[in-house]
Amino acid sequence: MEQLDLQLEPIAAPVIAKQFDDPTGDSLVSLGLVENTYLLDINRSVRATCDIEFVSPWNLPSRLFQYPVEVTGLNRQGIRRVLLRHPLLLDHPFVARMIDDGVAVEIDASDPVSSNRNGIWWHAVDLCTKEHWRDLLDTRRFTTDSDIMGAVTFGLDYAAIDTAIARTILAEVNSPEPEDRSMALLSGDGMRPTAREKGGMTPGFWIIQDKGLAAWARVHAIEDGWVKHKGGHLYLTPQGIARRTAE
Fold first, then answer.
1. What digits encode the pLDDT tens for the residues 57-80?
2. 3-state secondary structure of 82
3. pLDDT tens digits for 11-61?
4. What residues does 227 pair with on adjacent strands?
């Protein structure tokens, strides 16, 4: 069979007309802070990258520090806003550079720690590790005690911290330790064990709504042998299953 020699004309990329001018987005592009407004609309943030060598605390591996501003989409009036994720980020050298370059960085008076709250949670969970937990306590002004307790829970679930570190952090945020070593929660409705296809039973701690109690339940469950880590996750031990069955 003869092979047809087809010469196809290249297809041009579609041109999408702008409904509004976008001076803020165009400015961020021209300053080299974002590649284009299309990606800006997807990511809704600006990464802190420039020729400045950041020093502590701004060089910590916290996404709050790495993405200190969020950028809204164009509203119905064709306005895009650049919002600080936390008021104290005005001291961030990258933010200072943006302001010097003429970017109108705002603190949202109606919600000064960002409308989506992602930043303060990022800060807590990113630094709640065996390497950076002291940095978290040193910079706790950038997050909340509630987020820190939630980060302790997350860190214990995935072995990012141990119980000794968790105890120190919980003491710093004045979270009282339950006198019964969380026995009522662990033996009752505080766990809802879930069977997995492989690896055994997961504890199902998610039912505990109080951030402090949830963190302490992990501490006690690990220390008292209710659960153990395997493959980066917590599983009920045979002792833990027997205790719950006995109840």
1. 999 999 999 999 999 999 888 899
2. strand
3. 554 554 456 789 999 999 999 999 999 999 999 999 998 788 899 999 999
4. 236
188-219 residue pLDDT tens: 988 888 887 566 788 888 789 999 999 999 99
CA gap 212, 145 in Å, rounded: 9
Closest to 171 in 3D by CA, of 142, 203, 140, 126: 140
Tokens of 171: 């003491």
The secondary structure of 150-166 as a DSSP string is HHHHHHHHTTSS-HHHH
Task: Check if the beta carbon of residue 163 is closer than 8 Å to that of residue 197.
Answer: no
* Rg, Å, the chain Cα set: 24
Domain locations in the chain? 23-106, 144-246
Distance, CA of 71 to CA of 166 (rounded, Å)? 35
Cis omega (within 30 of 0) for bond into 57: yes
* Angle at the Cα of 86 from the Cα atoms of 62 and 23, rounded to 5 degrees: 100
